[in-house]
Amino acid sequence: MELKNAVAVVTGANRGLGRHLAAQLVERGAKVYATARRPETVDLPGVVPLQLDVTDEESVRAAARTASDATLLVNNAGILTDTPLVAGGLDAVRLEMETNFFGPLAVTRAFAPSSRATAAAPCSTSCRSCPGCTRPASGPTPRRRPRPGP
Ligand SMILES: NC(=O)c1ccc[n+]([C@@H]2O[C@H](COP(=O)([O-])OP(=O)(O)OC[C@H]3O[C@@H](n4cnc5c(N)ncnc54)[C@H](OP(=O)(O)O)[C@@H]3O)[C@@H](O)[C@H]2O)c1
């Protein structure tokens, strides 16, 4: 993938994998919006820090307005509460779904117009397994016909 003229948005870029991905994108020549719930915690040189909480619709919309030149979205922000789905507290389960499912979906929807306009694709750290990821496959997955029985 050519990154020299890419304009990347990385969610959760203040630490962990997001920080590393943002640094790598800068190194490869991309302009990088390093987004974080608290942008003051972004310490990478060469990036544009931007406030973005994936669970806050207004924050997502505002970030998409600011980074309207984005061509590449890395849906990285996420949490792991280790809450058992059946026996665990529902609040924690909800938080995990809001952050890891509806969050990336909201971010993808907000940034879709700019990335579509430039024919680039949103991407996720858990690529293609994330519901928010609309990265096109290289081709349609062929459907197998069921084998006729014996
Ligand atoms: N590390 C692994 O082995 C692994 C494996 C598979 C998938 N992943 C996925 O890869 C991603 C990054 O993993 P990591 O290990 O780097 O995690 P991490 O160190 O815990 O970092 C998580 C990042 O997400 C941000 N974040 C959490 N909730 C957010 C919200 N509501 N809005 C915006 N940002 C939010 C955090 O920001 P704050 O600093 O504000 O909390 C932080 O920047 C996660 O989605 C994770 O599920 C990781």
- Calculate the mean pLDDT score and round it: 86
How would the global form be characterised?
A: globular
The CATH architecture comes to: 3-Layer(aba) Sandwich
Fraction of residues in helices? 25-40%
Order of helices and strands: EHEEHEHE
- So, the CATH homologous superfamily? NAD(P)-binding Rossmann-like Domain
Largest sheet: spatial strand order: 3-2-1-4-5
Biggest sheet details:
5 strands, parallel
Low-confidence stretches: 126-142
Distance between the termini: 47 Å
How many β-strand stretches? 5
Strand content: 5-15%
CATH topology: Rossmann fold
Give me a quick take on this structure:
This protein has 150 residues and is α/β, with parallel strands linked by helices. It has helices spanning 16-27, 57-66, 90-117; strands spanning 7-10, 31-36, 48-51, 72-75, 122-124. Helix 2 runs parallel beside helix 3.
Question: What do you see in this structure?
Answer:
Keywords: Oxidoreductase. Residues 125-150 are annotated as: Disordered. With 150 residues, the chain is of the alpha/beta class. It is 33% helix and 14% strand. It is built from three helices and five strands. It has helices spanning 16-27, 57-66, 90-117, and strands at residues 7-10, 31-36, 48-51, 72-75, 122-124. Strands 3-2-1-4-5 form a five-stranded parallel sheet, with helices on both faces. It binds NADP nicotinamide-adenine-dinucleotide phosphate (NAP).
